[in-house]
Amino acid sequence: MKVRVTVSLKEGVLDPQGKAIGHALHVLDFPEVREVRVGKVIELDLDEADAARAQERAIEMAKGLLANQVIEDFRTEIVQ
Amino acid sequence: MKVRVTVSLKEGVLDPQGKAIGHALHVLDFPEVREVRVGKVIELDLDEADAARAQERAIEMAKGLLANQVIEDFRTEIVQ
């Protein structure tokens, strides 16, 4: 079972990497860019046939290692 | 219009960050983890009301800056 964990900065947390990308896009002639936020996507291939159980375990992994819940939110979804 | 660009390493490209996370998850007692791949997700807020045009521009941005197409694939999707 594959589970995708998407980790993004919470609203209001400064995102310097996003700001840098936004600036670069303006320079590259994309003036329509208003804001850029950057996150991580972690694809887990788990030896677990049950989708609900796989997602539950992925949430434990996100809380324990993948996301810093002080400044980041995460969501999980089954890929296949 | 918001567009999400997800950038991931092509199949076969070594992912040391994914390997490190996989190892850490094993140590943290998640033995069911078989493989981990890490990618980026870039959320673009564009001053563009037309969804098709926004997605087209996001693809240009991905090709021009956000993804290194030698080693990375990307996909775009409209968020709202």
TrEMBL record, chains A, B:
Per UniProt, the keywords (alphabetical) are: ATP-binding, Cytoplasm, Ligase, Nucleotide-binding, Purine biosynthesis
Enzymatic reactions: N(2)-formyl-N(1)-(5-phospho-beta-D-ribosyl)glycinamide + L-glutamine + ATP + H2O = 2-formamido-N(1)-(5-O-phospho-beta-D-ribosyl)acetamidine + L-glutamate + ADP + phosphate + H(+)
Identify the EC number(s). Answer: 6.3.5.3
Please name the pathway.
Purine metabolism; IMP biosynthesis via de novo pathway; 5-amino-1-(5-phospho-D-ribosyl)imidazole from N(2)-formyl-N(1)-(5-phospho-D-ribosyl)glycinamide: step 1/2
Q: Does the keyword Nucleotide-binding apply?
A: yes
Q: What's the superkingdom here? A: Bacteria
Tell me the GO BP annotations in alphabetical order.
'de novo' IMP biosynthetic process
Q: Give the family per the record.
A: Belongs to the PurS family.
Name of the protein this chain belongs to: Phosphoribosylformylglycinamidine synthase subunit PurS
